[in-house]
């Protein structure tokens, strides 16, 4: 049997991202993205709403994989203030509407892993995942090769979701 290699050199920047040592907030990839000063088209921030953002997952499970999070660095639901709580869940709802419009999925997974024991890869910065799903979207490539095949680039996904985002939402 020949060992196959899947090269993903573009992930190196994410893995080795420059963050000063010490401060947990400075180590947070979300805070680095939000504080980068880069345009939303580069950071893949789809929308910003009063202290909450929706952005694309750089390593999506499916095309359209969104994350909604408070701009403020906090890891617990109970640390959200009333406005952040309201805007976060309104933005999750708007994200569902945008995914339905842009992708016509047969279902949507919503999830938040609170704490490392619950599977949180970034336990210090609360975020909610939104993933469009289709019957049969896990195929032999995922099962046999443990590899995801994504049919579009993050740039295309970003533009689709920005175009589909509900404009009346505050």
Structure description:
By secondary structure, this protein is an alpha+beta fold. The protein has a single domain (24-161), classed as HIT family, subunit A (2-Layer Sandwich), CATH 3.30.428.10. Helix content is 34%, strand content 15%. It has a 5-stranded antiparallel beta sheet. A hairpin with a 2-residue loop joins strand 1 and strand 2 (52-56). The longest helix is centred in the middle third of the chain and has 22 residues, at 82-103. The protein starts with 11 loop residues before the first helix and ends in a 6-residue tail after the last helix. Mean pLDDT is 82; it is low at 140-145.
CATH architecture grouping: 2-Layer Sandwich
Order of helices and strands: HHHHEEEHEEHH
CATH superfamily: HIT-like
> Given the structure, what is the number of helices?
7
Structural class: alpha+beta
User: Total domains, how many?
Assistant: 1
The CATH topology corresponds to HIT family, subunit A
Quantity of strands, as a count: 5
Span of the ends, CA to CA: 56 Å
Shape: globular
Strand content: 15-25%
Q: State the helicity in percent bands.
A: 25-40%
Main sheet attributes: strand count, strand direction, barrel closure: 5 strands, antiparallel
| Strands ordered across the widest β-sheet | 1-2-3-5-4
Could you name the ranges where pLDDT drops below 50 across 5 or more consecutive residues? 140-145
**Average of pLDDT:** 82
Topology, pairings included?
Layout (H helix, E strand, L loop, with lengths): L11 H4 L8 H4 L1 H6 L5 H4 L1 E5 L2 E5 L9 E5 L11 H22 L3 E5 L16 E6 L6 H6 L8 H11 L6
Helix pairs in contact: 5-7
């Amino acid at each position: 049997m020949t060992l196959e290699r899947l090269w993903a050199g573009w992930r190196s920047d994410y893995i080795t991202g420059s963050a000063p040592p010490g401060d947990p907030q400075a180590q947070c990839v979300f805070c680095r993205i939000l504080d980068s000063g880069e345009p939303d088209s580069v950071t893949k921030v789809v929308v910003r709403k009063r202290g909450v953002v929706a952005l694309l997952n750089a390593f999506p499970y499916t095309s359209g994989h969104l994350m909604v999070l408070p701009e403020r660095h906090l890891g617990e639901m109970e640390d959200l203030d009333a406005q952040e709580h309201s805007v976060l869940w309104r933005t999750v709802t708007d994200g569902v509407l945008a995914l339905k419009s842009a992708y016509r999925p047969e279902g949507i997974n919503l999830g938040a892993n609170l704490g490392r024991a619950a599977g949180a890869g970034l336990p210090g910065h609360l975020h909610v995942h939104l993933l469009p799903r289709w019957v049969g979207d896990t195929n032999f490539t995922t099962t046999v090769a443990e590899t995801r095949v994504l049919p579009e680039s993050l740039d295309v996904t970003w533009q689709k979701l920005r175009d589909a985002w509900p404009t009346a939402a505050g």
